[in-house]
Design goal:
3 domains, four-stranded antiparallel sheet, 353 residues, Calcium-transporting ATPase, cytoplasmic domain N, Calcium-transporting ATPase, cytoplasmic transduction domain A, 37% helix
């Protein structure tokens, strides 16, 4: 319910898509920002309506209600002037000119009939009023409404809902559409698309955060592959997100990237959103911009401990002395090979960790 100025932050990340459209959580700290900095560049601020994806922090309230950033946006929406569509404007002009024309003709007929035709005023007045009423196109609004309703039905068949009928005419006159990407062209969801292992790249299919899809060759069981199974361990256990299956489908509580990794683990192991329930976390190093990785110490039901690490490729590669080969064995790590893989995947528009 308030905007905060951070005075303490530890591994803090916030989802600000509701304000900035940023699809991934942004890092937060205590370093001051310029007074005129853009909303997305105010790294020391937490805003009302945004969600904490990771970390902890403490701050001082600097704005509540209408003084918050989201409150100001709400205030601006109330100040928006409702513009008439070209069709409504043309109809208004037509109605004014038609009314003026009918009044002039009626006045001329009344004057001619009374002064030239010497007709009774009462009888002549009733005739002129009847003529004026007959000249009004009563059926025009009905015809216009029916025409627009047909357009609304055509749009509905294409999964576009139109709230105001005159908007149909405006859409027909549009030549350029400017739109924000996140939430409009995209759904602010992430999904693992490929896995680079020692000898090849494994493609991953699926949709959104649903832990369902193919990993590798269609029909093959990825859980039988030792390397993919270890990847699933890291993806699920070095993770703070939670996947839930709701009425609107699968959604993530936490970092969207970690939600995508959790869905990947479910696809590999085939155990839904909780593939490693038997493991317990003992310690954790949260992700921080200084070391650029996250690490957890996890213990299974038999007491065996394992450290899982994920993070920026260059940071994790620098920590490694060996790599997994395609058959599940180990071999000295070839850093140049992995850096080349990272560049190839990044060039294809993928985020690489």
């Amino acid at each position: 319910p308030a905007d905060l100025r951070l005075i303490l932050a530890r591994g803090l990340k916030a989802e600000e898509a509701i304000l900035t459209g940023e699809s991934v959580p942004v890092d937060k700290g205590t370093d001051p920002a310029a007074r005129d900095a853009a909303l997305g560049d105010q790294g020391s601020m937490l805003f009302s309506g945004t969600l904490i994806a990771a970390g902890t922090g403490r701050g001082v309230v600097v704005g509540t209600g209408g003084a918050t950033q989201i409150g100001r946006i709400s205030g601006l929406l109330h100040e928006v002037e409702i513009l008439t569509t070209p069709l409504v404007a043309q109809m208004d002009r037509f109605a004014r000119w038609l009314t003026l024309f009918i009044l002039i003709v009626a006045a001329a007929l009344l004057a001619y009939g009374y002064f030239v035709g010497h007709m009774g005023f009462a009888e002549l007045f009733m005739a002129v009023v009847g003529l004026m009423v007959a000249a009004i196109p009563e059926g025009l609004p009905a015809v216009l409404t029916i025409t627009l309703a047909v357009g609304v039905q055509a749009m509905a068949r294409r999964n576009a809902i139109v709230r105001r009928l005159p908007a149909i005419e405006t859409l027909g006159a549009v030549s350029v559409i400017c739109t924000d990407k996140t939430g409009t062209l995209t759904r602010n969801e992430m999904m693992v698309a490929s896995l680079a292992i020692a000898d090849h790249v494994v493609e991953v299919s699926g949709e959104g955060y649903a832990p369902e899809g193919e990993v590798g060759d269609p029909g093959a069981d990825p859980a039988q592959n030792a390397v993919l199974r270890e990847i699933a361990h890291i993806a699920a256990l070095c993770n703070n997100a939670v996947l839930r299956d709701g009425d609107a489908g699968w959604h993530v509580e936490g970092d969207p990237m970690e939600g995508a990794l959790l869905a990947l683990a479910g696809k590999i192991i085939g155990a839904g959103a909780t593939p490693f329930d038997g493991w317990t976390r003992r310690e954790a190093i949260p992700f921080d911009a200084a070391h650029r990785y996250m690490a957890t110490l996890d213990v299974d039901g038999e007491g065996r401990a394992m450290i899982h690490v994920k993070g920026a490729p260059e940071a994790v590669i620098a920590l490694c002395g060996n790599q997994r080969s395609g058959d599940g064995g180990t071999a000295p790590i070839i850093a140049e090979y992995w850096h080349e893989r990272v560049e190839t995947l990044a060039a294809g528009g993928q985020r690489v960790i």
